[in-house]
From TrEMBL:
It comes from Senna tora. This is Tryptophan aminotransferase-related protein 4-like. Residues 26-380 form the Alliinase C-terminal domain. Coiled coil: none annotated. Its cofactor is pyridoxal 5'-phosphate. The keyword S-adenosyl-L-methionine does not apply.
Amino acid sequence: HQPLCECNPCYAGPNCSQFISNCSANAGSGDPYFLEPFWMERPEKSGILVSGWHRMGYTYSDGSYISEMLVKHIKKLHQLVGNVVTDGRFVVFGGGSTQLLNAAVYAYSPDSSLQSPAKVVATAPYYPVYRTQTQLFNSRDNRYEGDTSIWKQNASSVNATFIEFVTSPNNPDGKLTKQILNGSNVKTINDLAYYWPHFTAIPSPADQDLIIFTISKVTGHAGTRFGWAIIKDEGVYEKMLSYLDSNTMGISREAQLRALKLLDVVLEGDGKQLFKFAYSTMKNRWTKLKEIFSKSKRFSLQKLSPEYCTFFKRSRDPTPAYAWVKCEREEDENCYEILKAAKIDGRGGSLYSAEDRYVRLSLIRSQDDFDILINYLTKLIDQE
Ligand code: PMP
């Protein structure tokens, strides 16, 4: 039952106990290794064995690319957590939520030979894939048009459809957000990748027209590449389905089988074990982080307020996946470089269309990565 023993890249030796001196803290990518210990405690229950003859065909027995049983599991999970309304909603699967982001842009875009191309927008600081993906596909039916702030006053009078990405809690700063633009010509794609008790209070179930989730940030299986969209309107659902059909003929049957098995384990008993584990891990990490930053005048963390959580039935502080650090000194214009010189590898603010005075630090990696990060942060802040 032992996992393959691979040392954290900062450690060597037979027991992975020798720290490689001067090794930088990896606080860059959002690989969700913080959930690995939960799954290591459940090695057999959470495993699948796929025989050579299993599901060799393209479709399920009903001719679709979507496992009905998995749809039921997903709806059960949402009902348990109370983070989204699923009654009467349609569900589409994607290769990670990444594939669904563009499927949703496609579904909301008009035929540009008849109307102006849709304007795709987001509010800084935002997850860069919304922009890079729209630009990569370079469709005649939609175009990336910058920050919502440019359109805030006049969106409703512009003769075009707006497609606004709303990320809540937001990546990188962890804030619960709402749509900025108003008007009957505004459609929103609500990316709720982090709307789980791991990271935030759940004040009420979301019920926007188009909502996207991913398994990556709930069970932590980013490598499975599995996401889902919850859709109100049948026409939008049909368009997203046809995108998925033409693009990849749905999602790998093995990925769907693994997702089903993982959700089976999550839903076991009272269905709260994963959420208790994830929240307590994130809470411990945030307690340590806040303590260190409370001693600093040079660096600050994002300010977040407690909210009532309907899942835990009490008020709680947010425990976001990322620290959004600001360098407060006038001269510290490039915060990424300052942290890098102190052996802390984060991601610079400009990647998220914010100032380089900000840096994102990932808090959802392994315990080793987090401990190394805390170590270097302590040293840096002690020097002040
Ligand atoms: N949306 C947001 C806000 C994210 O942070 C991420 C992953 N970092 C994704 C979508 C994509 O997730 P995936 O493709 O793994 O489902």
